[in-house]
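FAQ

Q: What does a record look like?
A: Structure on top, sequence underneath. For example:
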Protein backbone atom coordinates (compact mmCIF):
# COMPACT_ATOMS: atom_id res chain seq x y z
CA UNK A 1 0.00 0.00 0.00
CA UNK A 2 1.19 3.52 -0.79
CA UNK A 3 0.23 6.73 1.00
CA UNK A 4 0.86 9.89 -1.02
CA UNK A 5 2.28 12.89 0.85
CA UNK A 6 1.63 16.08 -1.10
CA UNK A 7 2.86 16.14 -4.71
CA UNK A 8 6.13 14.22 -4.37
CA UNK A 9 6.25 12.26 -1.11
CA UNK A 10 5.10 8.73 -0.43
CA UNK A 11 5.11 6.21 2.40
CA UNK A 12 5.01 2.56 1.38
CA UNK A 13 3.40 0.20 3.88
CA UNK A 14 5.36 -3.03 3.39
CA UNK A 15 4.12 -6.40 4.62
CA UNK A 16 7.53 -7.71 5.67
CA UNK A 17 11.00 -6.45 6.55
CA UNK A 18 12.60 -7.83 3.38
CA UNK A 19 10.59 -5.41 1.27
CA UNK A 20 11.78 -2.52 3.43
CA UNK A 21 15.42 -3.47 3.31
CA UNK A 22 15.45 -4.32 -0.36
CA UNK A 23 14.11 -0.83 -1.09
CA UNK A 24 13.18 -2.36 -4.47
CA UNK A 25 11.67 0.74 -6.05
CA UNK A 26 14.90 2.75 -5.75
CA UNK A 27 17.90 2.70 -8.06
CA UNK A 28 21.45 2.35 -6.80
CA UNK A 29 23.09 5.71 -6.07
CA UNK A 30 19.77 7.57 -6.18
CA UNK A 31 19.25 8.66 -2.55
CA UNK A 32 20.84 11.94 -1.46
CA UNK A 33 19.87 11.75 2.21
CA UNK A 34 18.52 9.22 4.67
CA UNK A 35 17.14 10.45 7.98
CA UNK A 36 15.73 7.84 10.31
CA UNK A 37 15.23 6.81 13.91
CA UNK A 38 15.51 3.01 14.23
CA UNK A 39 13.19 1.27 16.69
CA UNK A 40 14.36 1.39 20.30
CA UNK A 41 14.58 -2.40 20.54
CA UNK A 42 14.21 -3.14 24.27
CA UNK A 43 12.29 0.01 25.21
CA UNK A 44 9.06 -0.08 23.28
CA UNK A 45 6.60 -2.57 21.82
CA UNK A 46 6.01 -1.52 18.21
CA UNK A 47 3.06 -2.52 16.08
CA UNK A 48 3.77 -4.68 13.07
CA UNK A 49 5.30 -7.95 14.23
CA UNK A 50 8.89 -9.11 13.89
CA UNK A 51 11.62 -6.83 12.68
CA UNK A 52 14.25 -4.40 13.88
CA UNK A 53 13.17 -3.39 17.35
CA UNK A 54 11.45 -6.67 18.18
CA UNK A 55 11.85 -7.13 21.94
CA UNK A 56 12.21 -10.88 21.44
CA UNK A 57 15.58 -10.42 19.71
CA UNK A 58 18.92 -9.99 21.47
CA UNK A 59 21.10 -6.88 21.31
CA UNK A 60 23.60 -8.51 18.94
CA UNK A 61 20.82 -9.47 16.52
CA UNK A 62 19.55 -5.91 16.65
CA UNK A 63 22.99 -4.55 15.72
CA UNK A 64 23.39 -7.10 12.94
CA UNK A 65 20.05 -6.02 11.50
CA UNK A 66 21.10 -2.37 11.58
CA UNK A 67 24.35 -3.25 9.85
CA UNK A 68 22.51 -5.00 7.02
CA UNK A 69 20.19 -2.04 6.62
CA UNK A 70 23.05 0.49 6.61
CA UNK A 71 24.82 -1.54 3.93
CA UNK A 72 21.69 -1.56 1.76
CA UNK A 73 21.25 2.20 2.15
CA UNK A 74 24.92 2.80 1.31
CA UNK A 75 24.46 1.09 -2.06
CA UNK A 76 21.37 3.18 -2.78
CA UNK A 77 23.02 6.50 -1.83
CA UNK A 78 24.73 8.90 -4.22
CA UNK A 79 28.47 9.52 -3.93
CA UNK A 80 28.94 12.04 -1.12
CA UNK A 81 25.38 11.52 0.13
CA UNK A 82 24.41 11.51 3.80
CA UNK A 83 22.83 9.12 6.27
CA UNK A 84 21.63 10.70 9.53
CA UNK A 85 20.54 8.49 12.44
CA UNK A 86 18.67 9.55 15.59
CA UNK A 87 19.74 7.28 18.46
CA UNK A 88 20.56 7.26 22.17
CA UNK A 89 22.23 4.95 24.68
CA UNK A 90 19.60 2.62 26.10
CA UNK A 91 19.21 1.43 29.65
CA UNK A 92 18.88 -2.26 30.39
CA UNK A 93 15.68 -3.81 31.67
CA UNK A 94 16.54 -5.01 35.15
CA UNK A 95 13.64 -7.45 35.08
CA UNK A 96 15.19 -9.10 31.99
CA UNK A 97 18.96 -8.58 32.22
CA UNK A 98 18.99 -8.85 36.01
CA UNK A 99 20.97 -5.66 36.57
CA UNK A 100 21.07 -2.00 35.58
CA UNK A 101 23.55 -0.86 32.94
CA UNK A 102 23.72 1.14 29.73
CA UNK A 103 23.86 -0.33 26.23
CA UNK A 104 26.41 1.77 24.26
CA UNK A 105 24.08 2.08 21.29
CA UNK A 106 25.54 5.33 19.95
CA UNK A 107 29.04 3.84 19.80
CA UNK A 108 27.77 0.56 18.35
CA UNK A 109 25.62 2.31 15.75
CA UNK A 110 28.69 4.22 14.56
CA UNK A 111 30.63 0.96 14.28
CA UNK A 112 27.79 -0.70 12.35
CA UNK A 113 27.72 2.16 9.87
CA UNK A 114 31.51 2.21 9.45
CA UNK A 115 31.56 -1.53 8.74
CA UNK A 116 28.87 -0.92 6.10
CA UNK A 117 31.16 1.55 4.33
CA UNK A 118 30.01 4.86 5.80
CA UNK A 119 32.31 7.62 7.08
CA UNK A 120 31.46 9.07 10.51
CA UNK A 121 31.09 12.72 9.54
CA UNK A 122 29.51 14.70 12.38
CA UNK A 123 27.16 14.59 15.35
CA UNK A 124 24.45 16.79 16.86
CA UNK A 125 22.98 16.72 20.35
CA UNK A 126 19.20 17.02 20.38
CA UNK A 127 18.23 18.74 23.64
CA UNK A 128 14.58 17.78 24.08
CA UNK A 129 13.95 20.64 26.55
CA UNK A 130 12.28 18.39 29.09
CA UNK A 131 12.66 14.82 30.22
CA UNK A 132 10.45 11.92 29.30
CA UNK A 133 11.21 10.06 32.53
CA UNK A 134 12.54 10.90 35.99
CA UNK A 135 12.61 14.19 37.90
CA UNK A 136 12.19 16.52 34.94
CA UNK A 137 8.90 14.81 34.20
CA UNK A 138 7.72 15.29 37.77
CA UNK A 139 8.72 11.86 39.05
CA UNK A 140 10.87 10.95 42.06
CA UNK A 141 14.38 9.70 41.31
CA UNK A 142 15.01 6.21 42.61
CA UNK A 143 18.22 4.29 43.23
CA UNK A 144 19.57 5.08 46.72
CA UNK A 145 17.32 8.15 47.17
CA UNK A 146 17.87 10.30 49.20
CA UNK A 147 21.43 9.11 49.88
CA UNK A 148 24.58 8.48 47.84
CA UNK A 149 26.07 6.66 46.05
CA UNK A 150 23.61 5.38 43.45
CA UNK A 151 20.88 7.86 42.56
CA UNK A 152 19.21 7.07 39.27
CA UNK A 153 19.74 10.55 37.85
CA UNK A 154 19.94 9.97 34.13
CA UNK A 155 16.81 11.41 32.56
CA UNK A 156 16.06 11.13 28.86
CA UNK A 157 16.57 14.83 28.16
CA UNK A 158 18.76 14.46 25.08
CA UNK A 159 19.39 12.17 22.13
CA UNK A 160 22.17 11.90 19.56
CA UNK A 161 21.92 12.73 15.88
CA UNK A 162 24.77 10.91 14.13
CA UNK A 163 25.76 12.04 10.64
CA UNK A 164 27.50 9.78 8.12
CA UNK A 165 28.68 10.44 4.58
CA UNK A 166 29.32 8.11 1.66
CA UNK A 167 32.89 8.17 0.42
CA UNK A 168 33.59 10.53 -2.46
CA UNK A 169 32.63 14.03 -3.53
CA UNK A 170 29.00 14.72 -4.29
CA UNK A 171 28.27 15.73 -7.91
CA UNK A 172 27.79 19.47 -8.35
CA UNK A 173 24.34 20.98 -8.61
CA UNK A 174 23.42 23.99 -10.72
CA UNK A 175 23.24 27.50 -9.29
CA UNK A 176 19.46 27.58 -9.62
CA UNK A 177 19.12 24.56 -7.30
CA UNK A 178 21.61 26.08 -4.87
CA UNK A 179 19.60 29.30 -4.74
CA UNK A 180 16.35 27.43 -4.13
CA UNK A 181 18.00 25.51 -1.28
CA UNK A 182 19.58 28.56 0.32
CA UNK A 183 19.40 29.13 4.09
CA UNK A 184 19.18 32.56 5.67
CA UNK A 185 22.11 33.80 7.73
CA UNK A 186 20.20 33.26 10.98
CA UNK A 187 19.13 29.76 9.93
CA UNK A 188 22.71 28.88 9.05
CA UNK A 189 23.96 30.06 12.44
CA UNK A 190 21.20 28.23 14.29
CA UNK A 191 21.31 24.98 12.31
CA UNK A 192 25.10 24.60 12.44
CA UNK A 193 25.31 24.78 16.22
CA UNK A 194 26.16 21.43 17.77
CA UNK A 195 23.23 21.43 20.21
CA UNK A 196 19.64 21.80 18.99
CA UNK A 197 16.97 22.75 21.51
CA UNK A 198 13.73 21.33 20.09
CA UNK A 199 10.78 20.17 22.18
CA UNK A 200 9.59 16.62 21.77
CA UNK A 201 6.49 15.65 19.84
CA UNK A 202 3.94 12.97 20.58
CA UNK A 203 1.22 10.91 18.96
CA UNK A 204 -0.86 8.55 21.13
CA UNK A 205 -0.88 6.03 18.29
CA UNK A 206 2.92 5.87 17.92
CA UNK A 207 5.31 5.41 20.86
CA UNK A 208 8.30 7.37 19.55
CA UNK A 209 7.64 10.21 17.13
CA UNK A 210 10.22 12.94 16.62
CA UNK A 211 9.24 16.56 15.94
CA UNK A 212 8.75 17.87 12.41
CA UNK A 213 11.18 20.72 13.13
CA UNK A 214 13.98 18.23 13.73
CA UNK A 215 13.36 16.53 10.39
CA UNK A 216 13.06 19.87 8.60
CA UNK A 217 16.48 20.98 9.82
CA UNK A 218 18.12 17.74 8.73
CA UNK A 219 16.46 17.87 5.32
CA UNK A 220 17.47 21.48 4.74
CA UNK A 221 21.13 21.27 5.76
CA UNK A 222 21.99 17.91 4.20
CA UNK A 223 20.08 17.95 0.90
CA UNK A 224 19.15 20.16 -2.03
CA UNK A 225 15.75 20.94 -3.54
CA UNK A 226 14.70 18.02 -5.74
CA UNK A 227 16.82 15.42 -3.91
CA UNK A 228 15.46 12.02 -2.89
CA UNK A 229 15.22 11.64 0.90
CA UNK A 230 14.66 8.22 2.48
CA UNK A 231 13.32 7.02 5.82
CA UNK A 232 13.26 3.20 6.11
CA UNK A 233 11.41 3.43 9.46
CA UNK A 234 8.81 6.01 8.49
CA UNK A 235 6.59 5.73 11.57
CA UNK A 236 4.12 8.62 11.29
CA UNK A 237 5.86 9.93 8.16
CA UNK A 238 7.78 12.84 9.71
CA UNK A 239 10.84 12.70 7.43
CA UNK A 240 8.71 12.35 4.30
CA UNK A 241 6.48 15.25 5.35
CA UNK A 242 9.48 17.48 6.07
CA UNK A 243 10.89 16.60 2.65
CA UNK A 244 7.63 17.58 0.98
CA UNK A 245 7.54 20.88 2.87
CA UNK A 246 10.96 21.79 1.46
CA UNK A 247 10.48 20.47 -2.07
CA UNK A 248 12.42 17.23 -1.75
CA UNK A 249 11.18 13.82 -2.89
CA UNK A 250 10.53 11.95 0.33
CA UNK A 251 10.19 8.17 0.37
CA UNK A 252 9.36 6.23 3.52
CA UNK A 253 8.89 2.56 4.31
CA UNK A 254 6.85 1.35 7.25
CA UNK A 255 5.95 -2.18 8.31
CA UNK A 256 3.04 -1.30 10.61
CA UNK A 257 -0.36 -0.71 9.06
CA UNK A 258 -1.48 0.76 12.40
CA UNK A 259 0.14 4.11 11.57
CA UNK A 260 -1.72 4.77 8.31
CA UNK A 261 -4.19 7.24 9.78
CA UNK A 262 -1.48 9.00 11.80
CA UNK A 263 0.58 9.47 8.64
CA UNK A 264 -2.36 10.94 6.73
CA UNK A 265 -3.45 13.22 9.57
CA UNK A 266 0.04 14.50 10.28
CA UNK A 267 0.68 15.16 6.61
CA UNK A 268 -2.58 17.06 6.21
CA UNK A 269 -1.89 19.15 9.31
CA UNK A 270 1.66 20.10 8.31
CA UNK A 271 0.94 20.72 4.64
CA UNK A 272 -2.15 22.80 5.44
CA UNK A 273 -0.04 24.84 7.86
CA UNK A 274 2.39 25.54 5.05
CA UNK A 275 -0.42 26.64 2.73
CA UNK A 276 -1.77 29.02 5.37
CA UNK A 277 1.63 30.73 5.55
CA UNK A 278 1.86 31.35 1.80
Amino acid sequence: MKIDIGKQGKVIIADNMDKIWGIPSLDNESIALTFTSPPYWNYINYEGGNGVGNKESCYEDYLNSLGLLFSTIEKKTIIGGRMVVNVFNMKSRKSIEGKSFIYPLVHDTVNCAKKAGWIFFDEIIWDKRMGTTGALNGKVLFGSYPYPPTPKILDAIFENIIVFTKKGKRPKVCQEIKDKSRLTKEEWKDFTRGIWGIKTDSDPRHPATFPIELAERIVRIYSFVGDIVLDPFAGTGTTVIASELWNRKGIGFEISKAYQESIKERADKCLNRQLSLL
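Q: Is there anything notable about this one?
A: The chain has a mean pLDDT of 84.
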